[in-house]
Amino acid sequence: MKRNHRLGSLAALLLLATVLAAGCGKTKEPDSPAADGGDAGGPPKVSDASVTLNAAVDSVIVDRALEAAIQDGLKKKHPNIKLNIIQPGTGTTLTDQIASGNTPDIVFTFNGRFATYQDKGILYDMTPLLKTYQFDLNRFEPQMITDAKVSSTNGELYGIPFSRNFHAFYYNKDIFDKFGVPYPQDGLTWDQALELAKKLTRMEGGTQYRGIDPGAGIAWIYQPLGIQADDVTTGKASVNNEQWKKVFELVKAMYTIPGNEPNGTPLDNFLKQKNLAMIAYTNMFSQLEEATKQGFNWDLAQYPSYPERPNTYGNASVNMIAITQSSKYKEQALQVIEVVTSDEVQLEIARQGIISPLKNTAIQAEFGKNLNVLKGKRIESIFKSKPVAYPKASPYRSKSEGIVAKYFTEYMNGTIDVNTALSKAEEEINKMLQAERAK
């Protein structure tokens, strides 16, 4: 961490003589904060003694490229810090580490996971520490910091963003070429994407080609509208309304294009069978790398949006790095975070196809430059949309969404109409919420 030096509090005459003689003489009082490792007006000095920190990886990916960038940054800036990044596996998950009494100093996770840590005793509000060491949050996109606090009750900041996910609209160029259909353009609405899909859903040469798949059923389609299955504020279901009706009808319209019915997993359809023309998905660059080597001819476009929510896609998980409450080396852990979020490391991982949470446009411009799989692709399309504000979800979100999905399936299969599906979902969610709160 940077240090500033201050003029010692010497007698005025002596000080003046010193300054005149030395030009800009700076002396340090033995009893000053600087002598104890801190500078007046600057952050305290952190011990440079050798230390080993353990970091758990929970529900995010810390791949070789990211780890290499972090370790290289530490060697350059803080060679006294050894960072062990422990990948999740049998006996090495975050839960396993806590249960064994080896709670890590750092956790790599995403913002939505912090709500599940409330009963683990590891959450640590970093706000005072950041203030003491003058960590600059203004370098980050404001929404990233807002999204980082989504699981907080009083504005606590339990972690710092180091990357974020995105949604894009991937397409198989060969299918478009085969049927003489123009490639999807940026700025499509979902209704326009639906009409385009109808032109591409065909049986040809014994192969059933599908026009479109939303990637994750209704999940990523409802998110851009900023709606929830149950409202954390009211504690009640919130699905029996026009917005959820729009979602149900849109996804059913996709799946019921004759020949476009789901058949296997969407990713396999797109990458292996290569019979899916368009898929709305998150980052799939790693999967596309192997498919591209095998001759897969693809590109991407801007994620489709609703007219009332233009240039907006669903929840983009904000990947976070957090310090645990029990860590004895919080200051050194913050130094690790400073390295991870430094311009140097962020630039390196951006070149590897990871979106930075920083406002730095120069870093954004380097996105994907080191990935051969992205050469010649429409990368700029990714940045034409922004994620919806991450919702403050209830602890029962997954159960509520499971209920919604169940009644969507009944609606899609034609056993009930859309109004009945939403009404039944609302009723069942409310019963579930009442039962959960009574436990």
Q: How would you portray this structure in words?
A:
The protein is α/β, with parallel strands linked by helices and 439 residues long. 36% of the residues lie in helices and 14% in strands. It contains 16 helices and 14 strands. The protein has helices at 12-22, 64-77, 94-99, 127-132, 142-148, 173-179, 190-200, 219-222, 242-255, 266-273, 285-293, 330-340, 343-351, 361-365, 397-412, 418-438; strands at residues 51-57, 81-86, 106-110, 160-164, 168-172, 202-204, 207-213, 230-231, 236-237, 276-281, 298-301, 312-313, 318-323, 386-387. The strands form four sheets. It has a five-stranded mixed beta sheet, with helices on both faces. Strands 6-7-10-5-11 form a five-stranded mixed beta sheet. Strand 8 (230-231) and strand 9 (236-237) form a beta hairpin. The longest helix has 21 residues, at 418-438. The protein is globular and about 70 Å long.
